[in-house]
Structure formats: structure tokens, C-alpha cells
Design brief:
- It is a single chain.
- By secondary structure, the chain is an alpha+beta fold.
- It has a domain of about 100 residues.
- Helices cover about 35% and strands about 10% of the residues.
- Strand 1 and strand 2 form a beta hairpin.
- The radius of gyration is 28 Å and the shape is globular.
Length: about 160
């Protein structure tokens, strides 16, 4: 995930470079340890509305695959633990991108409208294979001469 705050671009790719200070700050400032945070962030792609119409549930991986129409990652805004985990991810991206003394409280004080989320770049997109199809004649291939049939073979 990539986003821009106050003209500075951040990416969550750098979160793997957490310091020990970051790990301690997570539990102390954000109220969530790294293991719980990682598990909770991983659940966001499996959030769904509760069957009885109220609240949010986390579908199992099998349920999410079987019923992708139920999955709605935007439900993280209705689930405090998932929203907190998302905000921790934004905070950690900022800390690992040079703002190492930024507190969780300072990070969450930015108005949400000041955060611009950018689409992920698809680095894994392979270029289209431009090898010509051997079963089709190229547009510049010479046109075959018409068949000449002798009149005597038609009778």
C-alpha cells in the first residue's frame, strides 16, 4: 500500500524494517503488539457483515474464498481492532520512512481527508507476449496467386 500525507509519499513495503523501539512503541502507544497486529491486518481482507445484520465478522479463509461477494475490506472502519491495526500500519510506514520519533497519537491526529491513498503498482505484471501467431499470415505476407484451373479438368 502507498499513500501521501502532507506531500510525502510512504509505502508499507518498508515496515519489515521495524526497530526494537518500534516494537515496544506498538504495545505501549498503540495498544497492540506485533503478533496481534500482524494477525489483525491479515484479517482485513476477510471482513464481512455479520449474518444477523449487525457488526463485523472475520470469515475463515475457506469461507472468504467460497463467498467473495460477502467480503468487504472497507468494514475495517466498523471494527475498532481492524481500524486500529490499519492505523498502526500507516504509523509504522511513517516511522520506518524517516519519522522515527513520530508517536501513534501524532500519526492518528492527521485528518483522514489529508491522506491520499495510491493504487498499488503491479510490479509483477509481465509484458504481453508479442510473438506472432504462426497460424495466421502476417499482414505484409504476399498474397497467394489464384489457382489456375484448366478448363478441361472441369468437365
Amino acid at each position: 500500500m502507498r499513500f501521501i500525507i502532507d506531500g510525502t509519499s510512504y509505502a508499507t513495503d518498508d515496515i519489515g524494517e521495524l526497530t526494537q523501539r518500534d516494537l515496544l512503541a506498538m504495545a505501549k502507544q498503540a495498544g497492540m503488539g506485533v503478533q496481534t497486529w500482524a494477525r489483525t491486518v491479515g484479517q482485513i481482507e476477510r471482513l464481512a457483515p455479520a449474518a444477523e445484520g449487525g457488526g463485523v465478522v472475520v470469515l475463515s479463509e475457506d469461507e472468504a474464498k467460497a463467498h467473495p461477494e460477502r467480503v468487504d475490506a472497507d468494514l475495517l472502519f466498523d471494527s475498532e481492532p481492524h481500524l486500529r491495526a490499519f492505523l498502526i500500519m500507516v504509523w509504522l510506514a511513517r516511522r520506518t520512512s524517516g519519522q522515527s520519533s513520530l508517536t501513534f497519537d501524532e500519526s492518528t491526529s492527521v485528518p483522514f481527508s489529508h491522506v491520499e491513498f495510491l493504487p498499488d503498482e503491479d510490479d509483477d505484471v509481465e509484458p504481453e507476449d508479442e510473438t506472432p501467431d504462426p497460424t495466421q499470415a502476417a499482414a505484409s505476407a504476399p498474397v497467394a496467386a489464384p489457382l489456375e484451373v484448366e478448363a478441361s479438368t472441369l468437365s
